Amino acid sequence: MILKKSCVLIVDDDPDVLTAVKLLLKTEAQEVITEKNPENLNWLLQRNQVDLVLLDMNFNSAINTGNEGLYWLRKIKEWKPNVCVIMITAYGDIDLAVRSLKEGANDFIVKPWHNEKLIDTIKELLEKKEGVKPAKATKSGSGATSILGESDVMQDIFFKVGKIAPTDANILILGENGTGKDLMAKAIHERSLRADKPFVKVDVGALTDSLFESELFGHKKGAYTDAREDRMGRFEEAEGGTLFLDEIGNISLQQQAKLLTVLQNRQVTRLGTNKAVDIDIRLICATNLPLSELANESRFRKDLVYRINTVEINMPPLRRRNEDIIIIARHFAKLYANKYLKPSVDFDASAIQKLKSYGYPGNVRELQYTIERAVIMADDHTLRADDLIFSILETQPEQVVDDDNVPLSALEKNAILRVIEKHNGNITRAAKELGLTRTALYRRLSKYDI
Fold it and tell me: Which residues of the chain have pLDDT under 50?
């Protein structure tokens, strides 16, 4: 075992931490060195054949930068580039620890840590250093909430999720519609220490001002006209678990002020009562707005942004994950073949080329519905390019929403005309693209006198 032959250096100004780690690693490593003063780092690295450093993020040292850990990390990488470094951080410094990964740290752990997890992390890093590489991750989460991907951008996200999921850090998930923000929130919950507790999702963007407090904070019987019984709010429902607030960027400034008060005090007060109830939840929020828009104080309170954004995760659009498209497409093909009792299907070369060359304005959600439609309409085991019909709603939005006064019937008639013209009058292909049966399309042709 590589750890048994390794020298580990622990640098922390807390003597209790030094003692605890030394006792933990005493029987696991060949040599364990402890040091309170990071200014002795260079001397220790030159004198000893150190394989791995456990480095605290904060010190009361002469280098008073406010993030001393990053300073000493850079120094270690300058003096001994091949030495593995694991940052030791407190809960409140998680965002700083994530930054340390970009500065060259190999990993970080959060106080208080689980001993087995710390040992496993050290072993994994030392094995990787020696060329014993773990299998490449292809998904995050489990079961129905698995997020697939082998692209570099998704590997970075999986690694980040692996670090932050076991903590209680508030997370803000950013990304376009259809990128899987809700699946990512569920995957984080399933990998957290709260996995056996409730996961409660609320689309706060759809709540009116009158429903916002009642839905989130609950109400007492008689608090307002329709309050016929006591009702627990979503914060209380999520007690001990995770509360996921979707579309957080769409709530009003008044709603933001109420939400901020609850998050600061970690208490909720039901409508119709003055009794505050303590809450213990892990908060995850999501929005399709870019962070620059959330930073606009005329639209969103900056103090609330800081409160919900201890760590942010940017879900990439599918067009930036080209190498993941076929993996995801095959996943949905298998899923819907089973659902609709169809034989297993795969894609021929033309279908693969079409899938890879499309821009996916609707992201993974559009790909999902495209594959579902193709599987339903498939006549054999192989899906071809002609079987893959992308949504008119995504590809031609300007032609169906230009005039708010156009009746729905006119929009439908125009869509049918365009598709029939596209396929040179072939009713079978036109019906397939529109998601209709031939009979249903003939009925519409008769209805609109086409």
Answer: 64, 133-135, 143-144, 395-404
- Rounded-to-integer distance, Cα 189 and Cα 199, Å: 7
Q: Measuring CA to CA, how many Å separate 179 from each of 150, 188, 313, 318, 330?
A: 15, 15, 12, 7, 17
In this structure, what token pair is assigned to residue 54?
């456990």
Residue 25 is which amino acid?
Answer: L
Q: Which residues contact 241 (CB under 8 A, 6 or more apart)?
A: 189, 194, 197, 198, 199, 200, 281, 282
Contact 87, 109 (CB under 8 A): yes
Phi then psi for residue 68, to 5 deg, are -55, -30
Q: Where does residue 427 rank: exposed (0-12), middle (13-18), buried (19+ CB within 10 A)?
A: middle
Tokens 């072939």 sit at which residue? Answer: 426
Class of residue 216 by CB neighbours under 10 A (exposed 0-12, middle 13-18, buried 19+): buried
**Residue 137: its pLDDT value, please?**
52
Q: How far is Cα 62 from Cα 53, in angstroms, rounded to an integer?
A: 21
Spell out the domains of the chain, with CATH numbers in brackets.
3-129 (3.40.50.2300), 143-314 (3.40.50.300), 320-447 (1.10.8.60)
Tell me the C-alpha distance between 380 and 335, whole Å.
Answer: 16
E strands, 302-355, in order = 311-314, 346-347
Rounded to the nearest 5 degrees, what angle is found at the Cα of 306, between the Cα atoms of 251 and 290? Answer: 60
Contact predicate 73/104, CB 8 Å: yes
Q: Quick: pLDDT tens for 118-154.
A: 898 898 888 887 765 444 555 665 544 578 888 988 9
Name the helix (H) or strand (E) containing 93.
Answer: none
Q: How far apart are CA 183 and CA 200, in angstroms?
A: 13
pTM over cut 0.85: no
